[in-house]
Amino acid sequence: MSQLSEQELVRREKLAKLRALGINPYPADLYPVSDTSKQVKKAFEEGKKVVIAGRLMSRRIQGNASFAELQDGEGRIQLYFNRDEICKGDDKSKYNDIYKKLLDIGDFVGIEGELFTTKVGEKSVRVNDFSLLSKALKPLPLPRTDADGVVHDAFTDPEQRYRQRYADLVVNPQVKEVFVKRTKLFNAMRSFFNDSGYFEVETPVLQPIPGGAAARPFTTHHNALDIPLYMRIANELYLKRLIVGGFDGVYEFSKNFRNEGMDRTHNPEFTAMEIYVAYKDYNWMMDFCERLLEHCAIAVNGSTKATFGEHEIDFKAPYARVTMADSIKHFTGFDITGKTEHEIREAAKSLGVEVDNTMGKGKLIDEIFGEKCEGNYIQPTYITDYPKEMSPLCKEHRENPELTERFELMVCGKEIANAYSELNDPIDQRERFEHQLKLAAKGDDEATEFIDHDFLRALEYGMPPTSGMGIGMDRLIMFLTNNQSIQEVLFFPQMRPEKKVVAVSEEAKAVFEILKKAEKLVLNDLKVQSGLSNKKWDKTIKELTKNNLAKVEKTNDGLFVEMV
């Protein structure tokens, strides 16, 4: 356990004093909340009795009276504590000792009181009685505002916010709003599907074959069966099995897992929505998709328009439709139609696109599109009719056997939806799988290395014409809430292991903070800035070097201290 700070020690002392007074700082009893802060303000009525609960977020104690702010799940409301109102008799200890001395910012309290309006017009609660519901032992990372309105010590460091999302949600109310909107998105999409007559289903997370996408899976082992299993990379093949089984339309919000890189737009665990509808094709799905996203945008933001960075995106249907061949020809001047793998590879090289010999025709086209075209599509745009080599699960185009009936929806240069007229010819599907194995053996890291024979068996029983679509839910909510990083829309994103906390003195912490701003300083300059006496300075610099937080380096220019 790391060394406790001075504030943490003080709070533990208060905890002990509360217990000595016979007060349980963590009572189990139900607390009879009658209103939230939002309800109080919305249906405000002078003199109305209320029972509310939440965290103490600020206090201004002025002798026998005090103003405080309480925060609950709906917002904040002002409280007014008066000693003589709370302590009717001669014993004033509940206010003087418990409220003033033993409660802290961050504690959960229950409040019984009545509504009133202050002289400056603020709707408030006059406290008749209060109860401690939970004692906070660690101080919240609350920002402070000085007399000039400048905010200091704001809790804005991304790594700390993601690691301590619980604290982030308390002190940064705008963060909670992102997750409220995320839930609105899921609810809106679910209701749209249900109203269309489609069924929400669940498919396995642990799978014997990682199918439905080309990605590196997480592997595990089932001890009782003594077999390897893979965490789901996609749910596509299971949902199609259900279409074979007689469902006309199924969808699932699935947690998928891919053992690959992490960056601002990728997390190893992510949420996808996939939907499959019988007797439809990709043209129908384009119409369905744009109606769906228009509905979701309005449900989340009250408008079809959303701001993302410097762009205003309009999700109002209909969306532009551009074939992949036309897109590449428009932005590069090169027409991929009818070209051989060699011709496309040479064209990619001439365009400055990095390629290698492991790439097949489909991968080469994908690289050209990704490098030269993708980033140009800001407003929602369907890119359609992909080469067959890029889409092993997609039906051959009805007019051009080299293409497939597939589209991706691009927004701000990123794909947020991918859809097919699904391949339901079991013989063709087997040949596509076998071709993927050859590409994988050649070194194509985006080709699938497995053949799902049970899925092929299902197709042999017959699957009706079907269209399917997948939407990356995390990326979609990023666009709808103007967040550039996927970590901002996940409650608990995957993080690197946290560095071990080293317990050091307050003096060492202060010197380290000075050093952190510069990374490297002349030893004497750092000593002067620290303001420490010679004795304390010697002790402090030894403490920092011993704990491998800083090192002293001798150079021709003198002694320097730098962070490790």
For this entry, give a set of tags:
564 residues, alpha+beta, 8-stranded mixed β-sheet, 18 helices
Describe the structure.
This protein is α+β, with helices and mostly antiparallel strands and 564 residues long. The protein is 35% helix and 25% strand. The strands form six sheets. The chain has an eight-stranded mixed β-sheet with strand order 8-12-13-20-19-18-17-16, sandwiched between helices. Strands 1-2-3-5-4 form a five-stranded mixed beta barrel. Strand 6 (144-145) and strand 7 (151-152) form a beta hairpin. Helix 16 (506-518) packs across helix 17 and helix 16 packs across helix 18. It is globular and about 90 Å long. It starts with 5 loop residues before the first helix and ends with a strand.
First and last CA, distance: 23 Å
Contiguous low-pLDDT stretches (5 residues minimum) are: none
Number of beta strands: 23
Helix content: 25-40%
Strand order of the largest sheet: 8-12-13-20-19-18-17-16
The major beta sheet can be summarized as:
8 strands, mixed
Oligomer: single chain
Mean pLDDT: 93
The total count of helices amounts to: 18
What general form does the structure show? globular
Q: Which structural class do the helices and strands define?
A: alpha+beta
Beta-strand content estimate: 15-25%
